[in-house]
Each structure stands twice: as structure tokens, then as C-alpha cells.
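Below is how a single chain appears once it has passed through the pipeline. First comes the sequence as given, then the structure the pipeline wrote out for it. We keep one example in the README because the format questions we get most often are answered faster by looking than by reading.
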Amino acid sequence: MESTLIFPKNESINITIKNAKLIVSEQTEFQKVDIWETEKYGKIVFLNGWLQSIEHDEHIYHEFLVHPALIYQIPIAKVF
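Resulting structure:
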């Protein structure tokens, strides 16, 4: 069932995404995990109600997380 996803950006601003479908909502021992599927942004992951990752922007996270580790841990010759 599709609905409207509303989540806080900060204390005074909420973000609204229409035509979102909740595909996973689980409470683990440590946190609440929600995964939404949207037409425009792909999958969106929330932990304890806070935005963690958007599939549409994944390349941004990837660049900042992976490249520093590659530079310091693996010889450049082995990357290519």
C-alpha cells in the first residue's frame, strides 16, 4: 500500500515524499529499522526514525567512505 512518507530534517522542517511504500519495518534488539521504496529516490533506510541512506544518493556515500580506506590500506597497483 502506497502512502506519504514524512520525516524530520531538523526541529522545524519536515520532508514529505509521496507514493512511498513501506517494505520493511522491524524492531531489533538494538534499533528500529524502516525501509521505504519510492519512485523518485529508490529505497530509503531509517534507523530509529532518522534518515540513514537514500539509494539515489548512494554514490555520494560510497565515494567518501570507500576511497580513504583504499588510499591508506591497499597498494594502488592492486586496485586497478
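The mean pLDDT is 83.

See the next section for the split statistics.
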